[in-house]
Amino acid sequence: MLRNTGKLAGCTLFITGASRGIGKAIALKAAKDGANIVIAAKTGEPHRTLPGTIYTAAEEIEAAGGKALPCIVNVMEEQQIAEAVEKAVQKFGGIDVLVNNASAISLTGTLETPTKKVDLMMSANTRGTYLTSKICLPYLKKSKIAHILNLSPPINLNPVWFRNHCAYTISKYGMSMCVLGMAEEFRGEVAVNALWPKTAIHTSAMDMLGGAGVEKQCRKTDILADAAYCILTKPKSFTGNFVIDENLLSEEGIKDFDVYAVAPGHPLLPDFFLDVDPNTLAMKMEAHGASSTFKEGKKVDRTIPERPEGAKHEGPQGTKQNAEFTAASPAGPVAETFKVIQGSINEDVVKATQGVYRFELSGEDGGTWYLDLRNKGGSAGKGDPPMKVDVTMTMSSSDFVKMFSGKLKPTMAFMSGKLKIKGNMALAIKLEKMMMQFSSKL
């Protein structure tokens, strides 16, 4: 790993989103030099699912050797940014470095992205980066260090990075365009660069996107902290660059990258925007026996007891359900999967989900299938459901079986273009959670 040189001793870093994850890792790296860290983040009270607050981060920073100023900052609120900058200048005398790390993400298609989510990503990512930079720049221009670092990707106009999550891509590229413009506008005064990981980084956000076990395909936040430290200790003449962490650290003499891996030796998941086509990526992952969940599903027990047509099926906890599958039902992997799903439905599942799903499947054993998790005891079967559909999912039959058996994470299927979703995205996410119950029986 990259050693600290002490070059940031006494410098003041204003880092957005520094209460956890990548932002905090960069803060802790600088703190080892004795830097002053302004923790500009939203989390003042403990989050119900995410670790850390601005105050717990401040404790860690000071324990590492730095000085901390925790500030409640939502980068969508100009006044909050301005107040935090003013506090930083009053306490530390100025600002030497700005790290625009705070970001929002929604990997949804154009028709499935609510306006509220579009506004969130544009405001937090593009507008937040622009505003925070604008407010900090008068102080940065007075600094001998004078760096802005945006956690954003190189701009890549390959349509593959737009087709599945257009709004998110635009918002992240907005951050990158700030680098292009400001690097030229303030050349010689303030260095402005972007940093992006070559592989997925293990954070709370990645856990939510990738599911259980995704950390095995990730590197630790340490690699970005080291790369950021390397950039921020360079002269102002190093500007306008779109830096990939591994490439930079290789140039700095780092040879052993296993030290950054969560699970050394395990295949790593490349990050977005680096021209690894998602479909190719998915195939490479599967070739290494890996997916977003990294969990091998159990084989379907194809010995299903026959029941008289019209008989009731006893589901878990004694819940009675209509028998959608009989001896005359279709055969094949999809049909067998639906049989197991049918046997797993109960009133608690229906009560917790409240959605009707239609699956348009191509390939062997394909066609239209449905899953009713809204009415009475729930049901599943072939054909269109006899009620209003909330979510339609389109994919191949083989990927459907993999998805429900736990071998293919729905998020990965969606990102790679294998799964298309129309309708209520909140219910689509609910189904993903319910799949954990189904997959244990497949």
TrEMBL record:
User: Which is a Gene Ontology cellular component entry for this protein?
Assistant: peroxisome
**Domain of life where this protein originates:** Eukaryota
A Gene Ontology molecular function term of the record: oxidoreductase activity
Look up keyword Cytoplasm and say if it applies: no
Major location (coarse): mitochondrion
Any idea where the SCP2 domain is?
346-435
Which CDD domains does the UniProt entry name for this protein?
HSDL2_SDR_c
Q: What does the UniProt entry say about where the protein is found?
A: Mitochondrion; Peroxisome
Which keywords accompany this UniProt record? Answer: Mitochondrion, NADP, Oxidoreductase, Peroxisome
The record's InterPro entries line, in alphabetical order, gives: HSDL2 (IPR051935), NAD(P)-bd_dom_sf (IPR036291), SCP2_sterol-bd_dom (IPR003033), SCP2_sterol-bd_dom_sf (IPR036527), SDR_fam (IPR002347)
Name a single GO biological process: cholesterol homeostasis
NCBIfam families reported for this sequence: PRK08278.1
Give the record's family classification.
Belongs to the short-chain dehydrogenases/reductases (SDR) family.
> What is this protein's name?
Hydroxysteroid dehydrogenase-like protein 2
Q: Which organism is it from?
A: Sphenodon punctatus
